[in-house]
């Protein structure tokens, strides 16, 4: 690979990514350069006249080629920030999303007055929700499940790295199976379940299609997992306990109806910061 300055490689990378239809090609090129140097994007730009070493050139172009194949940046780097926590991600897990950070902050608010909250999370993936809640609520005990063994191993690794491994129990369990344990145990059942209708999966951005189908596919109307989780919630929750789920932006009315049919009260469908209906909350009568 030929030598060149940071500025020259950025221009080359932007063109390469642009030709492959990568959205915000320049931002991706700058972000990956900054990550390679371990600095912010503006700091990387300040070095635009600096030459790259041969090793840096290979590393950078390797990342750019992956990005050109529409691999999400988080999979290229192997990590993603979530509420200030560095979460390791692999292709076995969904990349944590900013809207899920909002779900976690709402859950923290819901549990503020509970002295020793017990939390059940279904479909933990990287463990981002469970880990962030464990950090925000130091007296909480958390039980987190997933069907994917690889995701659970990753979640466990992330929890240990964030020093909350002793407060979260990760268990492999199918959300569609009947649960015998934990009846009436939880103050909160939280989930970001797969909620995309099967027929919409092939039309998703190439980056999203790189994520595990198990994490995305919500069945015919997208609500298979949502229905199963809502149906189990009254058994798992204490009286007065809360159910909190992330949902698709068009699913609010159906999910509100579902919660009501199961006896939940104080049902709220909340918008995310982009203005899309994204979260469904409900309380079990006390
Ligand atoms: C949308 S991802 C959410 C991951 C993570 N909680 C987050 O918010 O980034 C849904 C998760 O549910 C898990 N899942 C899908 N089907 C499941 C099932 N039948 N039983 C248990 N977990 C399941 C997937 O493996 C995936 O980790």
CATH-defined topology of the largest domain: Rossmann fold
- Distance separating the two termini: 67 Å
Multimerization state: single chain
Helical segment tally? Answer: 12
- CATH homologous group name of the largest domain: Vaccinia Virus protein VP39
> What is the strand tally?
9
Shape: elongated
**Main sheet record:** 7 strands, mixed
Mean pLDDT: 96
Sequence of strands across the biggest β-sheet: 5-4-3-6-7-9-8
CATH architecture label of the largest domain:
3-Layer(aba) Sandwich
What class would the helix/strand composition place it in? alpha/beta
Low-confidence stretches: none
What string, H for helix and E for strand, traces the elements in order?
Answer: HHHHHEEHEHEHEEHHHEHEE
Helix content: 40-55%
Q: What is the class of the largest domain in the CATH system?
A: Alpha Beta
Q: What percent strand?
A: 15-25%
What's the number of structural domains?
Answer: 2
* Small-molecule binders: S-adenosylmethionine
What does the radius of gyration come to? 21 Å
How do the helices and strands line up, and which of them pair or pack?
Blueprint: H1 6-19, H2 25-37, H3 41-45, H4 54-68, H5 73-77, E1 79-82, E2 85-88, H6 98-111, E3 118-122, H7 128-136, E4 141-146, H8 149-161, E5 168-172, E6 186-191, H9 206-209, H10 213-216, H11 224-236, E7 237-246, H12 252-261, E8 265-271, E9 277-283
Parallel strand pairs: 3-4, 3-6, 4-5, 6-7
Antiparallel strand pairs: 1-2, 7-9, 8-9
Bound molecules: S-adenosylmethionine.
